[in-house]
Amino acid sequence: MVVADAELPQVAPRGRVDWTPYLLVLPTLAFLGVFFVYPMAQAIWLSLTDQQSGALSLTNFRRMGGDLYFIPAIRYSILIMAIAVPLQVALGLVIALLVNSRFRGHSAFLYLTAIPIGISDLAAGLIWLSIFTERGYLNAFLDAAGLAAQPITFLTYEHTSWLIGAIVVTEVWRATAIVMLILLSGLQLIAKDYHDTASIFGAGRWQTLRHVTLPLLRPSLQTALIIRTILAFQLFATVVALAGRQIPVLAGEAYFWYSLYRSPNVASAYAALILVLSAAITFGYLRLLRQRELEMTA
Amino acid sequence: MTLRRLGIYSAVVVISAWVALPLVLITLAAFSPREILYAWPRRIWPERFTLDTMLFFVRSAGVLQSVVNSLIVAVLTIVLAFLISAPTGYALARYRFRGRDAVQLAILATKMFPATVLSIPLAVAFIKWGLYDRLIGVAIVHATLSIPFVTVIVSSVFVGISYELEEAAMTLGSSRLQAFLRVTMPMALPGLAAAAIFTFVLSWNEVFAATILTLNNRTLPALIINSVVAAGAPLHYRFAGGFFMVLPALIIILLIRRYLLTLWGVTVR
């Protein structure tokens, strides 16, 4: 607290409240209120009211739950998340550690591996479509290597696991960069003293990584996990580009109910579901990680 | 030691190839003649490059207009996002006040929450408010999405500029506002430009909200996704579109590379 006091300039004379910071913050809060909090409440309200009569009812949730695509959408969303997120975190950690080792050329490597954060889910889906489509680059490579005389159809509903594999590969390619940047900035906050101390006590590289770096990196790992998990529920354009509706996902269903079936209320039910799932997962992660912390200190 | 170096460099080569290869391939596809993309055996390297595929895409119905729309939305988003979040970023960097942590948390929550999904209830509200199918409506949602990023960059920029310089200017007789405009602003400009560029990318790339909130005035991603879903656009259109959307990203990430860690990292320095 003392440090914080010293860092921040004292503007207000003691005893009087300076209203300037509140005035500066006001536009953001007002804007978030209207365009973030209000639609959140509106999503829940819409999902609980009947589209025709406007009366309170569970019709929308019944229509959502009764839809053929509903169960698969939940299943595939969770499945894709469960495979892609650990891969993103593992690969992101490897890249961050590599950059942080400051080998010659590490800044060019950082730039290259960060490029995907500027690429949209739609563009990423289209890029990998050019690879996985029937006359795509994957088949061209297989043909050149003499492994496929005829093109193999990868993106077909007959091979759901291949479709999911293509989506996971695309998501890992696109979103690892975000994880990497979170972890890298976490790594750079770790004071060098820790590593020096570890090596004085004779710890090898792996031991230092396991017992010093990773525990200290926990807050960043936690942030990366939560952000990626929540964003995984918004998975939409990648799936549409690669699989259309053959692999239904939650955000995709929200889109189809809104623009295809013209039912903002059922679409809102999906939105509300995604909100609840995201909140539950964030809460779950935080609980789980805090419990571990207690066990470790006990 | 050399073994370790060898390990590092082979990992770097493999990962670099993994990131770069798809970008090379989509570039090849976008400049290959159309026949090659549908032929079997499929050539990887076309014997000649052509602009036909890209020109076909650019000349397709609605594409040019949607590019213009995307640019307008992006500019509006930058203006809105700065008007709304730059003062907050400045306040978080320069003032200590009650509720500062709560404000930071509220802003962080927008990054954590699945905000794009909120465009569905917003569409209903926008119809009432006369903002539906209008570019400003899309820009408002994009500005909401960019608030956490702009705030955090702006605040890190001002934390990096010593307040004592402003104080010095004030002792020399300038007002607080003058000191800010003449002393701090010029030093803050590069960082603020990076925030603007990132906001541009965010808006340029955003698909879901743009699709939900527009009908005739599509942005480029909304147009492409609609022509994929509803019209079954041909493959060469999709590849050219993908390449066209990626192009700005390559340049833009290069421009803002100094701020990459600030954008997603918890803190800097």
Short description:
The complex is a heterodimer of chains A (298) and B (269). Chain A has 298 residues and is mostly helical.
Descriptive notes:
The complex is a heterodimer of chains A (298) and B (269). Chain A has one domain (70-290): MetI-like fold (Orthogonal Bundle), CATH 1.10.3720.10. Helix content of chain A is 73%, strand content 0%. Chain A has helices spanning 2-7, 20-47, 59-66, 70-100, 106-114, 121-132, 137-144, 160-189, 192-200, 205-216, 218-232, 237-243, 250-259, 264-297. In chain A, helix 6 (121-132) runs parallel beside helix 12 and helix 11 (218-232) packs antiparallel against helix 14 (264-297). Residues 1-6 of chain A have low confidence and may be disordered. Chain B is mostly helical and 269 residues long. Chain B folds into 2 domains: 1-60, no CATH class; 62-264, MetI-like fold, CATH 1.10.3720.10. In chain B, helix 4 packs across helix 11 (220-229) and helix 9 (176-205) runs antiparallel to helix 12 (235-255). Chain B is globular and about 75 Å long. Chain B starts with a helix and ends in a 5-residue tail after the last helix. In chain B, 47% of the residues are buried. At the A-B interface, helix 2, helix 4, helix 5, helix 6 and helix 7 of A face helix 1, helix 4, helix 5, helix 6 and helix 7 of B.
